[in-house]
Amino acid sequence: MFVPPPLPRTLDATFRDLSSEVEKVRVSAVQDLGRHLLGDEAAACRSRAVLALEKALADSSAKVRELAAIVAGEASTVELVPRLLIALEDPHTMVRQMAMDAIGRIGDDRALPRVQRALTDERAEVRYQAVIAFGKLAPVDEAADAIAKRIVDDDAHVRYIALRVAEEIGLASAPTIQMTAEKTLSGDDPKVKVAAALLLAPVGNSAARALLGDVVRGTLRTPEAEDEQAAVEAVGELGMTELQGDLERRAWGLFRFAKETYPWHAKIALAAFGHVRAVTELFADLSSSRREVREAAVVALGRARVTSSRDRILGLAAQSVDEALRQEALANLNVEETS
Fold first, then answer.
1. For residue 61, with 0-12 CB atoms within 10 Å meaning exposed, 13-18 middle and 19 or more buried, which class applies?
2. pTM for this one?
């Protein structure tokens, strides 16, 4: 017999179930509280929800505490920073990690001293999350030395995230960052090497550029898919035309049944070179009957800085592509649309 799915839990039912004696019920109630806090009822329920989350952060269930920390971060509940700081000492690893993540998301600099101390915590998972939070909280001009120390951390995962954070917040030119990151280029962890290459290649490091070439050729592989994508696209931005053949292989394949990884990113890199076939195909995609193909072309042409595409992108019908994607592409082309 057909049974309709249960209706979403109402706000009142959510608050009621947060006090259930059944752990599974409290877990799902915290998840629903996040839905309400991020939805239309946010303003009306925030003060009550903050109190409920504070209680949940002290729940007997580690899973409830973990989810409460996640919701606190997603909802930017600055009122809970003191309680989240206490959660950094939780006996359960995931609770500590999510509390640190929430502090970084909230961005309250009251937490900065505690986060900075966590950078040298004996537990690698705490150092990992501390690097992320520190990059969000610390003034950029004060962050380089602390993050540089984590680039040579004993733990490969911490080294990796320190390199990615350094790139994200624009520290590639800092002397201490460059000195420590260069040491990791010859290490034995591929994800760390690729992250270091992505950081250093744009500032002219020849060894980093060579490593990006290895990634594009497929002789150096990283388990981080986003980094391989970034490497493929980066060689276009860096004008590494010596890799054109390798990018063509990725974009279109050598054989009919060969499947290459990240062909779209390779096409962006080729378009950045002004590659005729890549640019022509992307222009043709702007007229596709499929919205997702048109939008992918808009994004690609913007990322590749194909300035000859600006008039075509500006001329697209208002409802033919997502406006945010169009504006992003125009920004990449340094175009200000006039109303």
1. middle
2. 0.83
